[in-house]
Structure formats: C-alpha cells, structure tokens
Design goal:
Elements lengths: L2 H21 L3 E5 L4 E7 L8 E7 L11 E5 L5 H17 L6 H17 L33 H9 L13 E2 L3 E3 L2 E3 L2 E2 L9
Helix pairs in contact: 2-3
Length: 199
C-alpha cells in the first residue's frame, strides 16, 4: 500500500471515529468492510417533525481524490426538494476538495430540516396503518359496499351489451410526473369515472 493510500485510509478512520462520537446512536455502521454508513438526521432533538437518513459509501480515494457515494432517504424528499439538497451537498464537496466533508454534509442537511420546520411547510404526511385510520378521514371518497344480488353473467352482459350507448364519452386520463426513488420509477394515472362502462 502506497503512503498516500495509507494516509487516505487513516483520514477515513479518523473521520468515522469523530462522526461516531459526535452523533452517537444516530450514526450506524451498515457494512464496515465495504465502508457503508448511515446517519439519521432530524430538525430537533426533542420532537422532530422532519427527519432524513443519509447513507454514504466511502470509496478508496475519499477524501483526497473521490467524493463519497451518497443516498438521501426520506418519504417526503421528492422533486425540487431533492434536487436542491443534492446540489447543496455537491457544492460543499467542490468547495472542500480533498477534505473530509461528511460532517459538513450532515450539518447542511440539519440546517435544511430546521428551515423546513420553521417555515410554513406542513409536517410530512405519515402513512397510517389500517388500525390508525380515522373514521372521519376521506368520507368524500368512500362508497358504501353493496354486494351484487344479480347473476354475475347477467351483469357482464349488461355491461357489454350493445343496448348501451356506444358513443358514451370515455374519461380523459391524467398522467402524473414520474418519480424515481431508489432506482424504481413510479407514475400515477387518474381518470374520473361515473359509469361501469367507463371503467
């Protein structure tokens, strides 16, 4: 191992030890051998409204020649928010080439979360489990279930019969913006329907 490689490896070890002692339980070693780490960052210590998990992989050339590989994980972090935060982290790297930057990244993310908490942004929506769903949530969209009393084949014939209006207007389909999260892309498609035939 060259002297510069040993120096780089020692810089990584020193940085990891420092971050581990600063952040305590929020710092997590995912894979020591592969140098994969994760840190939970929130807007406050008491009752955080906004949290985010920063996962980093330290390549052999970090910090002298390569940036860390990172992933930002938060269910609310999408689109413009994601781009702005990623750009901020890359800007910090460029301003501090050759230096250890993970502490700067963590504090920048914390600063963004504190700004969100202090702004008028509502708290991120947290999905409720079926046991937690409020009875009065979404009443506008609930339909009462009524079992079909008719023979299913008759119902099918009714839906497909030519006695129905052939020129019934089909609803327009609205396509949402694609969202990419952890190498998976999702896109919503919505159409308002009022008759079984439109479905």
């Amino acid at each position: 191992m060259a002297a510069s490689d040993m120096e780089t490896a020692q810089q990584q070890i020193d940085e990891i030890e420092a971050l581990s002692s600063i952040y305590g339980e929020d710092w997590c070693v995912v894979d020591e051998r592969e140098k994969i780490y994760c840190i939970k960052i929130s807007d406050s210590l008491d009752q955080p409204k906004w949290t985010l998990c920063l996962q980093v992989i330290l390549p052999p050339g970090y910090p002298t020649a390569e940036p860390p590989i990172y992933q930002l994980n938060a269910p609310w972090l999408r689109g413009q928010d994601y781009m702005e935060l990623a750009n901020s982290l890359e800007e910090i790297y460029l301003q501090n080439l050759g230096e250890s930057i993970l502490y700067l990244w963590v504090e920048k993310i914390r600063e963004v979360l504190i700004e969100k908490a202090q702004s008028s942004d509502p708290e991120p929506a947290i999905k409720k489990t079926s046991e937690e769903v409020d009875d009065d949530d979404g009443d506008d969209f609930l339909l009462e279930f009524q079992p079909i009393q008719e023979d299913p084949s008759e119902m099918f014939n009714y839906l497909t019969s030519e006695s129905q209006e052939v020129d019934e207007e089909l609803p327009s389909i609205h396509h949402g913006n694609p969202v990419t999260d952890r190498r998976s892309t999702f896109q919503a498609h919505l159409a308002p329907v009022v008759t079984p035939r439109q479905v």
